[in-house]
Specification:
The protein is mainly alpha-helical. The chain is built from 10 helices and no strands. Helix 2 crosses helix 4 and helix 8 packs across helix 9. It starts with a helix and ends in a 5-residue tail after the last helix.
Length: about 180
């Protein structure tokens, strides 16, 4: 009986090691702070570990974990989300993310401006933009992760991108490469 638990632990550990950078990036983009992102990923992985037998057997364990993370984030920050995502004064938390060199957005000239603008989006628009454009999920995958309709994803993505494009410092970045 111990071998099954050991196999499950090994499988879970391999999942965490392989997905940690991507989970951290998503959590950072959702929370806007490195420490909050670490807490979110850790609490998500704690929840997932308890149900790893079911999660590991899922068709897409990463998508399952992403849903857990989004729901945990929404629950934790529902009351003070606006205040938390757009802190007054010192916004140094936005500059602590370690850039992913394979991430084209990570090489943007004005990363700080982009992250600050992202932090000012309403929560659902922010989640949609992060999942659609950073995580490169389809509209259907994003809708499943957020627990909403594809129409809501389209609407939130369009509104979020429009707000980002309205920022003069991001005008060039928002129209270069990728989706428009």
């Amino acid at each position: 009986m111990g071998d099954g638990k050991q196999d499950r632990d090994t499988e879970f550990q391999a999942f965490v090691v392989g997905r940690w950078p991507r989970l951290m990036r998503t959590a950072f983009l959702l929370t806007g702070e490195q420490h909050a992102a670490e807490d979110l990923v850790q609490s998500t992985l704690e929840q997932v570990y308890v149900a790893w037998r079911r999660v590991g057997a899922a068709d897409e364990p990463e998508a399952y974990v992403r849903c857990v993370m989004i729901n945990a984030h929404a629950r934790k920050y529902r009351r003070k989300l606006r205040e938390f995502l757009a802190p007054k004064g010192d916004d140094s938390g936005l500059t602590h993310e370690v850039a992913d060199t394979g991430d084209p957005i990570g090489r943007a000239d004005d990363r700080h401006t982009l992250l600050k603008a992202l932090a000012e989006l309403p929560p659902r628009q922010r989640e949609t933009v992060v999942l659609r454009y950073w995580e490169d999920l389809t509209e259907t995958q994003t809708a499943e992760a957020m627990g909403c309709s594809v129409g809501a994803v389209k609407s939130n993505a369009a509104k979020g991108i429009a707000k980002l494009r309205a920022i003069p410092e991001l005008a060039g970045t928002a129209t270069q490469g990728g989706r428009k």
